[in-house]
Write a structure and sequence with these properties.
Length: 192
């Protein structure tokens, strides 16, 4: 049996049932992970950033302080509506509905954030995802991967398998830092 990448309808149903299905706004886990993610960024500030899979914009709002311009991208319109409301006072932040690897926002972005995203893709799709990320970057740009390490029964991959598949498909990326907690892994890459 081939496991396929999750379809847009999966996320539409999640947000229709609950506007914050992963408790991004209230979870101690999410808050600690966001703080660790921002602390792990190699540069104090970025000219152009993109957060792929921005959801309702909780990390986007925090990441905005570190970017001159920031694009949040998500597949779910309901999540994007919430993200736009959350970041309405931040004129340098904009949002776009898109789904990798079929739609690649025009770069280059000197920071590409993929937080809690890669395990939604099936392993055979990962080379296309890596190619899409590479198309948005230039040498010297940073890519941050953050993924839950717990069970992911509804997803095609778990956190470790997703990151390993991405790294295998991205020989153009150098691993700068890899952190691991009991709950998540945080990998910082630089485009070579």
């Amino acid at each position: 049996m081939t496991i396929r990448s999750l379809e847009p309808g999966y996320f539409d149903a999640l947000y229709a049932a609950d506007p914050d299905p992963w408790r991004f706004e209230t979870s101690d886990y999410e808050d600690a992970k966001y703080r660790a993610t921002l602390a792990a960024l190699p540069a104090p500030h970025y000219r152009r950033g993109i957060e792929i899979g921005c959801s309702i914009g909780v990390l986007t709002e925090r990441l905005a302080e570190r970017c001159d311009t920031l694009l949040g991208v998500d597949i779910a319109p309901g999540a994007l509506d919430a993200a736009r409301r959350r970041c309405a006072a931040l004129p340098h932040v904009r949002f776009e509905q898109a789904a990798l690897p079929d739609h690649v926002p025009p770069g280059p972005f000197d920071l590409i954030m993929l937080s809690e995203l890669l395990y939604y893709f099936a392993a055979p799709t990962m080379p296309r995802v890596a190619e899409a990320v590479h198309a948005m970057a230039r040498p010297g740009n940073d890519i941050v991967l953050v993924h839950w390490l717990g069970p992911t029964p509804d997803y095609p991959l778990d956190g470790d398998a997703a990151v390993m598949a991405f790294l295998a498909a991205a020989p153009w990326a150098q691993l700068l830092n890899a952190e691991r907690t009991t709950d998540y892994r945080l990998d910082v890459l630089r485009v070579t």
